[in-house]
Write a structure and sequence with these properties.
about 60 residues
Length: about 60
């Protein structure tokens, strides 16, 4: 599953999301729920160091 890094334009929170490409547009800030996000392009393995990792469940849920 692809990993995306975002920065919230509303509260400046930086976070990482594991989500299918088809649901990338549905990502919201985990702090303020804003949809105003800027995608951050960085080293693909930098997410392993982040404490702010969340996962959006696929349509239909996990499992």
């Amino acid at each position: 599953m692809p990993t995306y890094e975002f920065s919230c334009k509303n509260c400046a929170k930086k976070f990482t999301v594991f989500t299918p490409i088809s649901q990338k547009s549905e990502v919201r800030c985990p702090s303020c729920s804003s949809a105003e996000l800027k995608q951050i392009f960085s080293n693909p393995f930098s997410f392993l160091k982040s404490k702010d990792v969340c996962r959006i469940p696929p349509r239909g849920g996990f499992g």
